[in-house]
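Sample A.
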Amino acid sequence: MKKFNIAIVLALVIAILPTFVDASTRMTNHDVLNQTDESGKIAITGKRCKRHASSCNGVTVKNLETGDIIFKENKVSYKRDYNQNPYSPIGGRYYNFTMAPNGERFGFWFERWNSSEDYYYIYQTNPVKLIHKIKGNEWGDRAEFSASGKLLVVENQNNLAVFDVDSGKRLPLENAKFDNSREVKSIGITSDDTKLIATVEYGIVAWDLATGKQLYNHNTRKRSGFVVSGTNYGSGQLRFSKDNKTALSVSGSIFVIDVNTGRLIKRFETKKLSAQDTYYAKVDFIDQGNLPLVTVFSPLEFLKSDKYEIFIADWKQEKLLMKIGETGDNYHQLRKHALEITSSKYTEQLLEETAKAKQLSGIAQLTKLTALYQHNDVPLSRYFPARKQWIEQLRTDWYTLAKQQINQAKNNNDVQLLQTLVNSDLLGNKENRVLAYQSLHSVLKNNDDYEKLIALAESDYIPAQIKRDSLLDAIARYPDSTKLADYLALADKFNDDARVTNAIFDKVYQRVKEADNIASYQWYIKHVQQSEHTQEALLTLYKRAFELADDRGTIASYNDFIIAYPFAPQVNQATEYARSLEEDEYSSYFSSDEELSRRLLVRSKQISRVANQYRYDNTGYLLVIDRMNTLLQDMYPGQDATLRHLESEEFKDFHRDFSRAMRSLSSKLDNINKNVKDLKRHVAKQSDMIEQHFEKAAQDRETASELTRQHRMWERYLQGKS
């Protein structure tokens, strides 16, 4: 019943396989319907029918290189009522296909139902010829040719038999039948045809094929109640080292077995394999058995799309050395490549290629040496003394040549070659890479090529100091025609380096100072809110704005200055000048004090309504209104208008708001004077206040017009127009 269930599961799995599957998918359990030789040239295949674990269209052997059919046989057919009469006289099955590793022999078991035709057929491939028919015992569970193709081991119901292919003689085997508690997992004959090895459930058995005697029979099965445990030896195809002293098997892990003693040398754990992958993984020895080549199908559902990985590993150290190939590559070609790169001949080829490379010159030689090193600088190379010595010398030669190319390019002022070197992987070590960047920076600096200096700073992996020096040199070489927007874009791109941004802002501020007007300084504090020049720009802005207000010399111009620049040091002076003008305006021999006080109060309330209309800092408005309220009290203390205003809720609200604004004003003035971090937030707000006031609520229209004229001229300047 156990084998019946396994057959059903495997039948479902194989149904998803393509018609021809290479030896990497060769399952060592029964029911193999697709198989190739080790070269991948010759394939034997069948197609399953409705009944599980059998083939309906017989056997086909095909040359995969030419597409020629070498052998084809089909002795069975099925009526339409097959499901009702499965044991029809013309029914039967082909079963247990196998191909010799060297491709010279192939075999299969055929049974015709309700007849005595029940044989395991052995054929030679070229020319196709029936060699023997093995009768009896239904050898349908498992079959393996030896590497030479001279011996065939078959298994049925845990009963093993070995046949000499040429003579058809069955070799004697002592105790070659096992009960169901020791199910056979895998079988294999050593490449010298001297031993048969079989892994069984929790054990391993070996025979001497010359005498048929058992060499050992290890049974590690242990039972504790209902729990069965013991040492496993794998259930995948057995592979032998060239000296036949070591064997490999796979079942979730890779098992390394001492052939002479049956001792488990090592269990190579790998996350690449799971227990389900047992029949879809293959291990093989390369390099005289020191390095196993492992082919893995993982996970199981990738079988349909032929996804697998091949890697070389040191099983002694359980260390992955090298992965070869990609998904969909031909397994046999990859295996051939693995054998090539682990051979002494491959090392000789590398030495020859190196000698040819050194006959080249300049960048061509450097490119070739780089490729040779990078393609072979893998842990695998360290396992071969001659190759290890070669690659260490190659590295020295590569680094030396790279340094020579850098110095030569620098001496020749060859920018193109230096750029090629820094943007490539030809330099090898960090020392050469730094030297290449330094050399390119030096040449570009001498050429005053600011654009390429910027491009150099944007290079990947450029050392930080060279990047900074390149940027500083580029900024110093920017032409006078460079737009300020380009400077700011550069500062934004390299905003992680304060020295670079400060150098950029220096250039920008020099241009702003050349314009030396309100518009230029206002633009600077808006776009460069935190630099070494921000405080100076802000204070100069205040100075130029006061000069404009003072030139106009009107109450409205001073009010505009106070409202737009309430944090300026000149606010007190502007307040004094405005009050003096107001004292003259509101002193008249032709009007009564009551009329004048009302007129002053009305003007104060008009400004208050404007202040409430716009949503930005109204500190300046409060200063102007407070000045007018003070003037009202000083000049007309006993008038009804004054008294009613001082007693009103409006005046109380104003006084509360004014007191709060003055406390905030004191803190902001300290920030301006100290140039602390809060200055950035302050200048942003200051810029908004200026723009909104003169755009929407200017007191003096001529002052607003002058500012508009300055801004238009500055905008033309920013656009590069005269």
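Sample B, a different protein:
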Amino acid sequence: MHRVEMENKDYVIGIDIGSSSVVMSVGVKPQDGEMELKGVEVVPVSEGTVKDGMVRNFMELGDAIHKAKTALEEYVGRRLNSAYVGISGKDTYCVRYEDHVFVKDKDGCCVTAEDVRALHERIDKVTTGSNDEIVARLPLRYRIDDRQYVKNPVGTFGQKLSATYLLVLISKQQIESIKRAMHKADMTLSGLCITPTTLPNVVLDEVEKEEGVAIVDLGADLTDIVVVREGRMCYFVSLPIGSSSIDNDLREFVCAPKDKVEVLKKRCLSVIAEEVSEELTAPVQMAGRAKKQILQRNIAEIIGERLKDIASVIAKALKDAKFSSKVPCGIVLTGASAYLSDIDRLLARELGMEVRLANHIYGIDEASKEMISEFSSAANIGILLYGAQRTACLTTETPLVGVKSPTQSKHEGEVKESELDLTNPPKTPIAEPKFVAPKEEVVVKPIEKVEEREKIEEDEETDSKPIDLKAKESTDIEPQSEPQNEPKKKGRIFGWLKNINSTVNTILNGNEEI
């Protein structure tokens, strides 16, 4: 790997914290056009460091970040002193909140940009009164005099301007864990974002954003769902099930280590078992043992059945959030396991809607696309684009002479860590100057996790009230029970995430070649 000579430009560093690895990337902030990617480094994290998107051990996470940072510094020839960090999981969620202001034009009752700005400033004063932090306040839609909804209220007539906002939250404990991990890696936090919220600008085209589409990011421990309609993200949820459940099923079936299981997944000809020949095999070679020949159909059936379970979770989440019929463009699939052969066809059949792979990445130039994998890199590119819309990250201009550990030296020229600004003001067509925010602080408490149940009606004529923030229902997955010996059953597994172990044992009992 050769060193890249870098000019004096604005750089953005992004860190995607996942359950199985930390991905760090460096890009050049574009003046006009697309981002140029300079380097990507993937460092595995030990099991249990990050679980279900929650940082359990910030010391080990800090070591992984420092390892990725050191490798990238040597590659690009610059010291990387700060970065934007993205994360998702159980401690990240969204709620809806509604507020209003009265139009200042008392005579003509015409809504102006000043009225919209005053409404945004009221929302900026909303706090949680709990252990969660609001990291983004996104306007979903506006209403005039509690009558019709409008996309852009400026120029309309009425006496009261209301808006429904999507508030994105994360626990303060997770913020503190991430800041400590960054400090251990000798870096400061430029900003924090929820990874799923950055995906629309990376994997969707403009038609999909406007018409309505759901992004499904299939990760190791989590499956993130993001719904985008009318050009805005209007819902997201992180479900505690992912591709690691497939790995566990295969490991139990093959009795092989994790790296061999990953090879089997990549060699799987199709996740639709009935389309795989019963005569084809996949070899598995383990140290000190004779080579095994595993039937490809058995592998396909194990993977396929678990994917059907994941599909049922996705379908329930969309139904509960009242978005099943509001994604006419279907689902865009991305994530580390989106490469599985025919996974889009299987999910389309199970969900009853169109599913396409996120095989095109937006926002970066063509040369940069050669450095990444479309499916596994979408989240990290999203974090880079998030940072590119804000301030550049701090890097030392002097090329590296040697890289020392955080405990051995401080980066020359590094600034002190400033207080993290976690507010993410929404993009609105509002011109300067800004007006002074209201003095009073609007406190919403208590605020707890909730999966939005309210149905959106575009032409709703009834009166609207501010949305209560109710307690969020648990989406935990039932723990797997011990394998049971049962006769082989045909068809899929019904119910809410029933254990696949019975199917695995049936396969074991029904194939003498394995």
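Observation for Sample B: The two ends are 42 Å apart (CA to CA).
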